Predict the structure.
Amino acid sequence: MDISYTPEQQALKNRIANYFKDFVTPDLIEEKKHPDFFEGGGPVFKQKMKQLAKDGLLGLGWPVELGGAGIGPVEQHIFTEEVMSSGFPYPFLTVDTVGPMLAQHGSEFIQENIVREILKGEIIISVGYSEPNAGTDLASLQTRADRDEATGDWIINGQKIWTSLGHYADYVWLAARTNQSPDIKKHKGITLFLVPTALEGFSHTPIKTMGIRTNATYYQDIRLPDKYRVGEIDGGWQLITGQLNRERLSIVNPGMITGVFEQVCAWCATSKDIDGKPLISTPWIKENLARVHTGIETLKLLCWKQAWAMQTGNPDMADASAAKVYGSEFFVEAWRLLLEVMGQAGTLSGDSEGAILKGVLEKRYRVGSTLTFGGGTNEIQREIIASAGLWLPRAR
Amino acid sequence: MDFSYSELHNDIKSLASDMLGDFSDVERLKKLEANGPYLDHELWQKMIEAGITAAAFPEALGGMGMDYNATTLVAEVIGRTMVSTPYIPCIISSAMPLLALQNRSEVARLLAQIASGEKLITAALIEPGNEDPLRASSLVDQRSKISGYKHCVPFANDADYLFIAATKNHKPCVAVLKRKQPGVKLTAQLSTAHEPQYRVDLNNADIEILISDEDAHQLINTAVAMTTVAYCAMAVGAADKMTRISGEYTSQRKQFGVAIATFQAVAHRLADCYIDTQCLNIITLKAGSDINNGIYDSEAIAMAKVWCGNVMHRVSQAAQHVHGGAGIDRDYYLFRYCLWAKQLELAMGNSKQHISKLADRLEARYLSPR
């Protein structure tokens, strides 16, 4: 038991922190102002992704034979915490969640081509799970993939919703029904595909939200060669849960708040109230900051433990869910506590006159509400904890 | 970064779990507590003989040379079993901090006597109106006699020695003295947790060992850090146990024809207890790891106590709540955990105090020129 970085991990952290110090350049900040590019996708972003790959920073924790550095999940986590903290719109869904699933379960074609392209920073993947009538009850999804027996191709038809990054992604990691039999349990008839968005029959329309752009995506008679299938036919459910376990950890990565927290503390130390006293000397303000600080350190530890557990085997399912619930609810509370510190001026947005720290917290409020339901709603996480962590009987 | 315990740590934990588990049979506890607060002499003797109490002492003093983490594992088991032993005040609050001064022969002698079980020491850290041991009002005079008062001193009536935070020449010091002497008067106090506690009045009492100046400052800081994290570890055990007792109860208890654990409102409340326990556990592990690495002023210690206070309050109430009336019944076994929860919440500084301390540190850090 020694919960601190080894000298090598500390050196890696310093090196990565140093690398990212000036990585988010003014042209990227400018590009991110466009609603379509807040989560990446613009030309500057794409160039930066290639730079990351070239500098050997994508896939630190990936196996060497796939083009990674093979240095382990804790090191991968150190990287992700720093890149997220820098404000770079790191495509964690691609690199940290779908990517590893493809590396493990993808066909030879996928491993040889797509996995390598991920590590070269050349492609982005969206997740296609939710449908207008299938959200938390994901297994009831209706998008279908039918086999063309003559060619072995799959014909895909359906609609997905909340396909974030779908307007610029190269592929959609798509869950589709391949078995229509009413006699099997509904989660047993689902298969995973990697659908190139360049194929005929794919289209998308924007969904403008409180905070960012997302998409509805449409799949009309898309003819997909079998080499784009991932895993067994009708065996998609375990890939979905495997990907979601990783996504849950990614969306509560403390890097999302560590950088912003330091900025707010520094702002509170340099800003003075009407009496000339630094804001950070006001009791309730520093208490708000201390509460956020405590929450961040706790979240870091929960995530470190998960990363460490990945090194030795599979992280405990209930603990991954506990980290997701705690982390997501903490973020919502933390954005509130930090915004309180700014007063009403905290509601001034982006480039607006008087906006504090370029409105970074104003934006967080508008995007933050998705955390408690994204990646598997917290009610489901609590169900998982109740059954897998506490062995409580299930209602059904 | 390593979250695993060594084989030796796991051995100590399972040894303690088995032994304390056997001695916490509900009927036995009921008998013992029938006459009020007590020390479980039989169990304490077994713990000494098994090497549990002195595991973190160096071999030369009769121990196994283990680290601070080993003691928090025992504290966690105590929280899980609710046995009544002086392990925390004797071993963690007094003896462990004194290990740093074992090059003083009188300290080494005392520690060896504690290791063998020949002598028992307890810590008197707080006093009425002041819970900061670095600003104790008990005074050591020029003749090295001590006068003043302490309270909530655990197991004082059973102790041979008292470890007392005091002041000499306006500076913190620690006095180790014999309990049985004319200048020491004990008055029993009754507390929520039913731990035997005493007010200690000192009137020109003789001191056996006096630690002053820099050594004393460090000694008190160490005692405070180690005691704080020990209570947090005990709270981890108590929180986990309360959650699991509640899980078992609600899985059996039927209303409207079904186990009440199948109601989402109940299951989710217990899931929240599970999450709280995980958070308390992880920050406590970090605090313990920092102490192990010699960082006694680690922020993680204050953070752990913030969590400890909040989690004890929430989990105790949730456990009571889902039990309905069964939880308050002294014939059932949940109440002991809930009574201790309040002491664990309030001892060694409450959540607000520690948040306030963390706030001051943040302010100082960001206002200091870099």
In short: The first strand of chain B starts at residue 121 and ends at 124. The radius of gyration of chain B is 21 Å.
